[in-house]
Specification:
Layout (H helix, E strand, L loop, with lengths): L3 H17 L2 H31 L1
Length: 54
Amino acid sequence: MNNCSDLYLLSTIACKLSVCLSEDELAILATNLTALGDMLAVIIARNSARKNKE
């Protein structure tokens, strides 16, 4: 239940952005944010693998 406030916040941001940006801009932003999430996941995995080797 603690993460519900995060979901509410993200939903609110998405709704506000959808009013301010064109569909093309929203598509680019969504893709960029997905890429950012993927890159962060790679960093976390590499850090975890490095710690497991030590």
